[in-house]
Amino acid sequence: MRIGLTLLVCMALLSGAVIAQEVPKGKIPAAHLDASMKELPWLVAAWDVEDAVPAFKSKESKILWVDTRPSSFFKQGTIRDAVLLVYNQAGSDYPAGEPVCTKESLEAAMAAAGADKVVFFCQGPKCHRSYNAAYVAVKDWGIDAAKVVWFRGGYPNLFKAVGKEPKLKRKAKRYLSDEGVSQL
Question: How far apart are CA 136 and CA 149, in angstroms?
Fold first, then answer.
């Protein structure tokens, strides 16, 4: 039995398959960073900026945007109406006073917002925080994968797109916090 399991794991690794798990900083699998991957192996949608922008206009569902970055980043600018729930990896220590993303804090934030979907974001495609939060929300906390999104593009890429595209820039307050808008 043990040999069979080892053989199966080796075959998966050799075939390029990715085993779903939390990752340390800078270790998100390359395949998951590719913009063509729109769904992660644990069935969570992966959005880039062009996928996220229509969600700001959608009336179909109420979305809770969760910024998983430390508060020092959040204070400099974030997504409009986002909540700060810092995440790193399971078992990580957090600075005192940081609102930490736990099952309970996430469920409370979703209830307070009347949200039926949560979008986790952080500092861009290679930032592990939102990736890990999306994974844990589904795999450990039991949240339906159809209600969870990893915004791979993250805040910095949304900020750049809003600053660069006149159509988005005219409606910057729809996408960015006041702090973000003031930096355009």
Answer: 12
Show the tokens assigned to 110. 């979703």
> What are the pLDDT digits (tens) for 111-143?
999 999 999 999 999 899 999 999 999 999 999
Looking at the DSSP bridge assignments, the partners of residue 46 are 150
Q: In what order do the strands lie in the sheet with 63-67?
A: 45-47, 148-151, 117-121, 63-67, 83-84
Q: Which CATH class is domain 20-181?
A: alpha beta
Q: pTM of the full predicted structure?
A: 0.88
Question: Residue 151, SS3?
Answer: strand
In this prediction, residue 9 has a pLDDT band, given cuts at 50, 70 and 90, of very low
Helix, strand, or coil here: 17? coil
Cβ atoms of 82 and 133 within 8 Å: the answer is: no
